[in-house]
Amino acid sequence: QILVVIAVTVFSSCAKQKVFTEKDIQIIPKPAELSLSEGVFEFLENTKFVVADDFQKEISKALISKFKKASGWEPQITNTVPNSNYVQFTKDDTLKDEAYQLTVNKDNITITAKDHAGFLYGLETIRQLLPVAIESNDKVSNTEWIIPVVTIKDQPRFQYRGLMLDLSRHFFNADYIKKTIDRLAMLKMNVLHLHLVDDQGWRIEIKKYPKLTEVGAWRVDQENKHWNAREAVDANQKGTYGGFLTQEDLKDIVAYGQTKNVEIIPEIEMPAHVSSAIAAYPELSCFNHRIGVPSGGVWPITDIYCAGKDSTFKFLEDVLDEVMAIFPSKYIHIGGDEATKTNWKTCPYCQKRIKTEGLKNVEELQSYFVKRIEKYINSKGKKLIGWDEILEGGLAPEATVMSWRGTAGGIEASEQGHDVIMTPGTHCYFDHYQGPQNEEPLAIGGYTPLSKVYEFDPVVDSMSPEEAKHVLGGQANLWAEYIPTTTHSEYMIFPRLAAMSETLWSPKELRNWDDFSSRIKSMFKRYDYLGVNYAKSAYLVTA
Ligand code: TNX
Distance between alpha carbon 471 and the CA centroid of its chain, in Å? Predict the structure, then answer.
């Protein structure tokens, strides 16, 4: 009997003496400061989570539910500190926004933060310190749920760390959007920009204008057969391909985002990329053309909102009222890209507007359009974001610029003292190929492998420190012309989003491709457990 006791003791203490080295710590994005010590903390059946508020309780429950599935037991939540083996949260108002400190001892773990985001990120880091099998939906045996004794002090380099999903070119439902929110939070990304309006579909219910979704959300085919909006009109009488999110869906998505520190920013495109709206209400365009919802995009698309009719602005203000009631974000994105102004040049309403407002040309008319909308948005206490074309003809006074045609627009906006979000096509376009074209599914073009995303830096060397301060962060964009399914969408997003998260979160001096490409392997295993259809090819090639 004594022998058995000795054997058991030796066996169990050996197991717990697993020695962690730096290489075993495979957190993405890489924490700002980490110091590893000897020993481990072991999660056990009777581990307690000590919480002080409902948010801490909710995020603890999320980790506990992983334990329940993977280990079979369920750690408890309590309000009082037990004698041993617990995880506790402490508030420290001197820490920065979203920052956290994680102190792992042999007996207990402390997560220190100022805000919800910090506490959440502390737990996300614990999740990534745990064996990858913590992601398993089925019980796994022979796993010790240990993490190393370690001290981590972590905070984001940029406050804006985003992903844009294009819901217009193909529709993606609320379930997929919520899954994407989980995956963003896992990487400490904090913005999901929803592109809700484009030529190929209007995706947000607007109660005052029901035809926007009755007509504008549906096109005739999934394939890109009816590219031309004017030709699509008859075919589209029976449009059945598409869909939209109700206001309830969107409120639910917003609330879900709040539990994961992911802010949802809506984009309501104007004045172009709006065939779907004009198909529903032809009078929104200069010449009241009857068009249909196209399945692709014949360029240029000339039917855009009329900038001369006051009724256009009344419509947009009504739409924005409903949008602002759904999304608490301080930002509203109004698009502004790629407006072909052919119609404005001959439209009597537009020409009259140019005259009465003392404008020089149609570029200044677009600037007038955006400034007028900005005034309205500002009057409701919100801020406007637009694609970099909003610089043309003069930037609206408070606008934030999203720079997509390279970084030039962002540089110019920062010189003018405006805030900037960098999202240059060269590094941030996830609709581009990520591996050799002959091995990849059809994509729009471009070549942006994982390593190229990893090279991204939102701050351009030529910027002065003052200008650099205006760079809020960066964003990956997934345009969906060639992406009809969620599995394909996942394929384009992952693992490139992991690279993006590190460029936006971690200190620049810690960035190291070899180190990242070794850590990503652990993330692949997590994605395997989570059923994320990530691209393996992206890993194999370098730019
Ligand atoms: C340009 S980026 C667009 C989108 C397309 C994308 C395809 C931007 C503001 N406009 O409408 O989907 O290229 O890569």
Answer: 17
Residue nearest atom 2 in ligand 1 by C-alpha distance: 404
Give the CATH architecture of domain 160-540: Alpha-Beta Barrel (3.20)
CA-CA-CA-CA torsion sign (36, 41, 43, 47): negative
Domain residue spans of the chain: 15-154, 160-540
Q: Which superfamily does CATH assign the domain made up of 15-154 to?
A: Chitobiase/beta-hexosaminidase domain 2-like (3.30.379.10)
Beta-carbon neighbour count of residue 1 at 10 Å?
A: 5
Q: Whose CA is nearest to atom 13 of ligand 1?
A: 479
pTM of the model: 0.95
Please choose, from the candidates 261, 234, 250, the residue with its C-alpha nearest in 3D space to the C-alpha of residue 124. 261
Give the distance (Å) from ligand 1 centre to CA of residue 264. 20
Q: Which of 338, 402, 442, 481 to mutate to test the pocket of ligand 1 (most atoms within 8 A of CB)?
A: 338
Catalytic residue among 338, 392, 412, 415: 338
Q: Which residues of 493-527 are buried (b: 16+ CB within 10 A; e: fewer)?
A: bbbbbbbbbbbbbbeeebbeeeebbebbebbbebb
261-288 confidence digits (pLDDT tens):
999 999 999 999 999 999 999 999 999 9
DSSP-assigned letter for residue 438: G
Prior bond to 29 cis, omega within 30?
yes
- What is the three-class DSSP state of 341? coil
CA 450 to ligand 1 center in whole angstroms = 20
Q: Could you tell me how far CA 397 lies from the centroid of its own chain?
A: 26
How do the residues of the chain divide into helix, strand and coil, expressed in percent and rounded to 5? 40, 20, 40
**pLDDT tens figures, 129-161:** 999 999 999 999 999 999 999 999 999 999 999
Ligand 1 centroid distance, CA of 301 (Å): 13
Could you report how far apart the first and last alpha carbons of the chain are, in Å?
63
The SS3 assignment for 428 reads helix
ipTM of the complex: 0.90
Distance CA 462, CA 471 (A): 13
Residue 539 CB coordination number (10 Å): 18
- pLDDT score for 538: 66
Total Cβ atoms within 10 A of residue 79: 9
- Reduce the DSSP state of residue 390 to 3 states and report it: helix
Q: Are 43 and 130 in contact (CB under 8 A)?
A: yes
**DSSP structure string for 496-537:** HHHHHHHHHHS-GGG--HHHHHHHHHHHHHHHHHHT----SH
Two structure tokens written together for 189: 């990304």
Please confirm, yes or no, whether 214 is among the known catalytic residues. no
The Å distance, Cα 9 to ligand 1 centre, comes to 63
| pLDDT above 70 for 237 | no
Q: Is 454 within 8 Å of 511 (Cβ atoms)?
A: yes
CA-nearest residue for atom 4, ligand 1, is 479
Which amino acid makes up residue 292?
Answer: G
Kindly list the protein residues whose Cβ atom lies closer than 6 A to any atom of ligand 1: 337-338, 387, 404, 429, 431, 444, 479, 481
